[in-house]
Amino acid sequence: MFVTQSYSKTLGLYGERCGCFHALCESEKTQENLITQLRMVVRVNYSNPPLHPMNIALRVLSDPKLFNEWLSELKVVAGRIIQMRKELRAELEKNGTPGNWENITSQIGMFSYTGLSEKACKVLVD
Fold it and tell me: Which of 28, 41, 94, 121 is 20 to 30 A (C-alpha) from 47?
């Protein structure tokens, strides 16, 4: 099982490649094989991963005061995204834009797939 985490956007470290990769392996042999493959992938992408963003993430995530500040700010950002999605859906529905727009408010995360077609975009612009 693989789990990845990115802190680049949630810590405001855009373009800094800051995150984690976790792997649960069935055996030590599988773990050794995985590490060998990961080292090759990492080596191709960059020789020396950036330390500055990792140090920032480590400091914020390991200090309870900074972690709670970050979490509080993250909740504000998430709340804003949720509110903007509600408003977008309401405007699309108010304008009679063809389609079902519940996907906009049911999705989570910073990005959203609107499903807008070329026809729907023309309705919004006209």
Answer: 28
Distance separating alpha carbons of residues 71 and 78, to the nearest angstrom: 10
Instruction: Give, in order, the Cα–Cα distances in Å from 2 to each of 21, 23, 45, 70, 97.
Output: 7, 5, 19, 25, 40
Task: Give the pLDDT confidence of 92-112 residue by residue, as tens digits.
Answer: 899 988 888 898 899 887 777
- The whole-model pTM stands at 0.58
**CA dist., res. 3 & res. 23, Å (int):** 6
- Which residues constitute the domain of residue 71? 2-125
- Asked whether 103 and 113 are in contact (CB, 8 A), the reply is yes
Domain count, the chain: 1
As a whole number of angstroms, the distance between CA 11 and CA 19 comes to 10
**Which residues make beta-bridge pairs with 20?**
5
